[in-house]
Structure formats: structure tokens, C-alpha cells
Amino acid sequence: MRIVSTKMLIPIVQTIYFKTFILIPLAIVLVYVFKSCYRLWRELRLMSKFNGPKPTSLILGHWTLLTQPSDKLYLDFRAMARKFYPHYSMRILANCAVNILAPEDCEIIMGTKKHSSKSIIYDILKNWLNDGLLLSSGHKWFQRRRILTPAFHFNILRDFVPIFNEEAVNLVENISKNCGNSIDVVPLVSDFALNAINETAMGTKSDEEDRNQRAYRQAIHNIEEILRFRLMRPWYYMKFFYYFSTMSRIENRLVEVLHKFTRNIIQKKIDNFISNSVLPTPDDDEVYMSKKRKRLAMLDVLLQAKHDGEQIDYKGICEEVDTFMFEGHDTTSTALGFCLMLLANNPDIQEQVSQEIESVLGPERRKPNYNDLQKMDLLERCIKESLRLYPSVHFISRHCEEDVQLNSGLLIPKDAYMHIHIIDIHRNPDIYPNPERFDPDRFLPENCQNRHPYAYIPFSAGPRNCIGQRFAMLEMKAGLIAILQRFRMTAVDTPETVILKSEIILRTENGIKLIFIQKLGVPSRVVNDKIRRTNYFYN
């Protein structure tokens, strides 16, 4: 019997180890490639059953369609919605998506926690907003939502109304400076909304003349342009490629501006706590509540949660403040601008709303309280109808966590994306006859009874609906009341002439221009100042 020596075994063992070292990783790679190919084949097979526009490229799919100017893209999406209702498919490289246009399908997707994860599209916001409530998912989202919900309780919102009124007075005074002239209302209502959320949700007084605040507003608009640039270039979804681009460096500078503004707000609140030598608690009226008005700021809630060890740290507080400063001011100001435009273009309805305001607040034009705002039914219906026609967030995208069967019986495959076009749902003629017409009576109780619950979703719907929707409604009411008490509006821009852009927030190409005419018997602070200066000169 031949005995194998150790020297003979060594090369054999080395060969086995070498082959194993090579073959196992190779096998893993092959399995991964096979699974990826199978997943893509399955996705494409299922997606082929959907109607949709013809791909412009075998490899790129519909990418060239999305590289158009944002105003042209907006019109193309509306045309595809009319042509391919209730849903249609699109593809960019290997990323497949189904565009949802029917409320029945919206309920299937949005009415459950299974599909609450955002799609890859939202990853482009991560550098700015990180894992705030808008972008987080799973346990983290649930935990943050639980922490923040008390900050938007109606008892808290009730105490915010006087602040909304104060900021509405400032808005009116800014409008008064150009009374009788064509004014772009977008920057004015943006100031109003930013100041309001700063003083209410953040609990800090803002300064309209603050250079940081002006820089913050401009940075938001600039960064949205960059985000759209990245969105239309799929290779920039990958951080490695985007990191070395010029746009990445510009975005980083803008994010620094945005973060500097919100970090200053947080630091002011922390300094206030330190100066009082105590964190706020619900039983501490001197610190937790304002001396002038009892209110609980969202930022107070976050700092208290950190102090109590409720799974949020300083970074988490920054994430939520960034998120709410963006969502809470940009979406509301956009909605308010569109509502003013629609009222200016419908003078009969504008007059009816003015009469309703006077019937509740009297001819002396006093400021409304919370109960007054609840009585103004027509005003609320006008806001709702405006949000139907021009939802600030006109598009939502989700990641498909598992296969989803739609109302038509077609299947959306796992790992595909689901794009919900809110603006097309809101303008569906089968749900809203003559959908382009501004008609607040659509929201009379008798007209809403048989309407699908997901046929009107300006604040999203389901478990991930907007936590601040009541906050936004109260703020818009206060702003509109102050304006309509003092001015009659006439239209410069109309729904037919404004050019809409398909961006993160629905916007117009050139603002929204209106003319404000001072009502008789309502001298503004600006006019009074001029009178006082004139009297002083002659006396």
C-alpha cells in the first residue's frame, strides 16, 4: 500500500483551497446575476401587460421623455393620463414603474402599511432632509410619527390662530405697499408661511429682513432645480457618479445654507432652555408655554422627547426640523397662491366669501379665533377646491414591497415603483364633471357622499397622510381672511395663462400676478404712516 507523503498532499490541498476560493465567490455572483435577470425578466413580462407610451430606446426606455422642460413634461403627463387611464407603465433603464390614475387603485396602495416605503426618486432628497418623517419608513417612521402627533392636536392648533393672524397682518401690509399694481403674490405668501411655521411649530420669532431667511427661501428654489436635474438623469441616482459632478458641489453648498438656517432655529430654542435652566415639561407654564399665549411648539416636543430618551437624538431633531420647515412653508404658500388666483378669476365667488367673512367677523373686521374659522364653510370649500385643481404635492411615488394586484386584475411586480398622480385623479371628469372649472360646491356634503374616499387626496391618504394638514388649513384660512377683509382682487394671471411646472412642488413658471384694490374704510398701516407724516409736515 502506497503512503502519500505530506509533500504530495500540500499542492493538492492548495489546489482545492484555490478552486474553492475562486468558485464560491463566482457561484455567489452567478446566483446574484441569475436572480437579478429573473427579477428583471419577470418585471418586464408583467409590465408588458400594461398600456403605456412606446419606449424611445430599448435600453434607456422612456428616459428621453423625462428630459423635456418641466412645463412640457407637465403637459405630457396630463395627456398620457387621459389616454391610458386607469394606469400605464414606464421604464427608465431597469427601473419599472406603474403610473396610478384611479382612486380605487390608490386605496389598494396607500390604504395599507405594506407599501409605505418611498421610491428611489426620494433618495435625491436625502442629502438635505435625511431620514425625516417624509423619507423615513418602518419602525423609525412609526416612532417619529408617534412623537410628533401631539404637536398637531387641535387644542394646540387652536392657540396658533392668533399667531397666524399676526403674520396675516404683516402679509396684508406687504401687499399694501403695491396696492393697485400687478404683484407677484408667490414671494409674499412664502414669507407669510415661513414666518408662521417658524413662530408656531418652531416656537421662535422670525425676522423678514434676516439675510439668512432670504437666503433660505432662495436656496429652496435653487435646490429644487438641481433635484429635478438629477431626477432626469438616472445615472445620477447612483451616489458614486453624482458625487464627482459639478451639481453635487453646488447642491452641497445649498444644503449648507438650508442646514445653517434650521440649526440656528434649534440652537435658539436650546439656548432658551439653558437660560431657564430647565427643559420644558407639560406642567411648566413659564418655559413650556408662551407668556402671552399657551402653545406647545413642535420643536419643544422633539427636544423633550430627546430629553426623555424616546429614540431621537440631535441628528433626528435636525431631520424633522428640516422636513417641516420645507413641507410646512413651501406647500402651504403654493396652495395659498393658487387659491388667491382662483378667487381673483371668480369675482362672484370672491364676493360671496367676503360676505361670509363679514357675517362671522362683523363689519369692524375683527381678527378670527379658532371657532370663527370653523364657521366659514364657503371659505373652506374654496380652499378644498383650489387644492383639488392645484395640489401642492401633485405626485407621490412608492416602492412595491410585494406583488400588488390592481382593480383591473393586472399585477404590479415586487420591486417596481408606483407613481400616484394626484392631480390627474383630482381632474378626472368621471369624478368631477367639468373638472377644469373652479366650483366650491363640489365639496357640499351632499356632493361628497358618494365620492370615493381616495378621489380627493391633496394631503395624501392612508397611514402616511400629512400630519400637518389641519395646521395648513388654519393657516390658509387666516391668510385669506386678512386679505379679503382689506382688498378686492382682480386677475392678471389666469388658469389658462399660467405655465405649470412638474417639479417636487407644483409651481408656475413666472409666479402668480394679481392686482389688489384697497376696500373703502380700511386704511392700511402704510397709508396711516403717510397721513401721520403729512400732518406732521403741515403742523
TrEMBL record:
Its cofactor is heme. Signal peptide: none annotated. One of its GO terms (cellular component) is endoplasmic reticulum membrane. The chain crosses the membrane at residues 12-34. GO terms for molecular function: metal ion binding; monooxygenase activity. The keyword Repressor does not apply. The keyword DNA-binding does not apply. Keywords: Endoplasmic reticulum, Heme, Iron, Membrane, Metal-binding, Microsome, Monooxygenase, Oxidoreductase, Transmembrane, Transmembrane helix. It is a peripheral membrane protein. Heme binds at C466. CDD domains: CYP4. It comes from the Eukaryota. It is found in: Endoplasmic reticulum membrane; Microsome membrane. PANTHER family: CYTOCHROME P450 4C3-RELATED (PTHR24291:SF189), CYTOCHROME P450 FAMILY 4 (PTHR24291). Belongs to the cytochrome P450 family. May be involved in the metabolism of insect hormones and in the breakdown of synthetic insecticides. This is Cytochrome P450. It comes from Cryptolaemus montrouzieri. The lineage of its organism: Eukaryota, Metazoa, Ecdysozoa, Arthropoda, Hexapoda.
